User: Fold this.
Amino acid sequence: MVKIAALMMIASGAIHAVVNAVLKSGDDMLARRALIDLSGGLLVLPAIFVFPAPHGAWGWLTGSLAVHAVYFLALVRAFEVADMSASYPVMRGTAPVFAALGGVVILGDAITLPVAVGMGLVTSGILLSAIGRNLTRAALGYSLLTGLAVACYTVLDAGGARHAPSPMSYIAWAFFILGAGVGAGFGAWRGRAFLAYTRSNWRSCVAAGALGVVSYGLAILAYSIGDLPRLAPLRESSILFALVIAILLLREKADRLKIAGGTLIFAGVVTLLLAR
Assistant:
């Protein structure tokens, strides 16, 4: 089951890279992010009539919703004060470390030396790609807060999936509540501008929303059967897949630091897959 969970996380990372590629293709990334989350929430609406409510996990789900609000606000501020190329690696590089610590302390998950080494390689590879980027103290602070928020909702969602009647129950209700909450909140904030953006961009965002449900749904399923210290870093393989997409499909140039970072991430993924 451990290997199955690990492979699910890699698949989740690959799909997440595609969602990020769609996200980055828009001119208003924040509105696009909200529309993708709202689309995902609406797509799982029929599922809440099929799977039971997540009794026993409402506290975890409520906490996840609150943390997602912090995550969204921190993400907005980070992207306002710094380029995404500078802040994003810090967010994603620190999140697995925070999540692993949360998994050990809160959920009682185990961590071995090979898993710690693999996690360190993945994190180092991600952070390496941020070297030389312009990152102010404020940008660093908001980026770290975003990474901490990612880790917190990861731990909460893992706990929720383990305490709900079934992982699918938690997934369906979490996506509906979180997606509707994010979409409604952002829509109220942007008002008519968000409605105008929705009319001209809904097709790609609905597709990305469906992929987002599959991506994070796989992650939550994996968390329900595996330990966070091993699994959380594996989802960050999305950055490795994103690098491949950027080079092969988008014809972007990759500097030596990105290639070195990708190599470390790959080494970390292999280490985590082989770790016992």
Q: What stands out?
A: Residues 2-274 form one domain. The chain has a mean pLDDT of 85. The chain has eleven helices and no strands.
